[in-house]
């Protein structure tokens, strides 16, 4: 028995993209209008860029691990199905 692959709707994809854009824009505007020296702004900007790229990397790693687990699970299920199909309970042991 296989489980259907989860499909992301275009509305969900758009909502995620808009939420990301709004969050990133608000942080960037907060850094720009922060009443501190330029080097402090630069440090915060580099920190935000590192955080964003780390989030993308983490999401990709989690997705790849989930896909890999699903693939190995399907392979294990196929092997089990083949063994059960080839098994004859009435066959005399050799």
From TrEMBL:
Any GO CC annotation of this UniProt entry: plasma membrane
Transmembrane segments: 12-36, 42-62
InterPro entries: YiaA-like, YiaAB
Domain named YiaAB two helix: residues: 12-64
Biological process terms in GO annotation: DNA damage response
Keywords linked to the UniProt accession: Membrane, Transmembrane, Transmembrane helix
Membrane listed as a keyword: yes
PANTHER family: INNER MEMBRANE PROTEIN YIAA, INNER MEMBRANE PROTEIN YIAA-RELATED
Protein name: YiaAB two helix domain-containing protein
Protein source organism: Nocardioides mangrovicus
């Amino acid at each position: 028995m296989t489980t259907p692959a989860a499909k992301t709707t275009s509305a969900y994809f758009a909502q995620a993209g808009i939420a990301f854009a709004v969050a990133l824009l608000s942080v960037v505007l907060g850094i720009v209008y922060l009443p501190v020296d330029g080097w402090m702004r630069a440090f915060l900007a580099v920190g935000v860029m590192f955080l964003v790229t780390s989030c993308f990397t983490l999401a990709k790693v989690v997705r790849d691990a989930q896909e890999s687990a699903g693939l190995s699970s399907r392979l294990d299920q196929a092997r089990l199905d083949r063994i059960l199909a080839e098994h004859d309970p009435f066959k005399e042991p050799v």
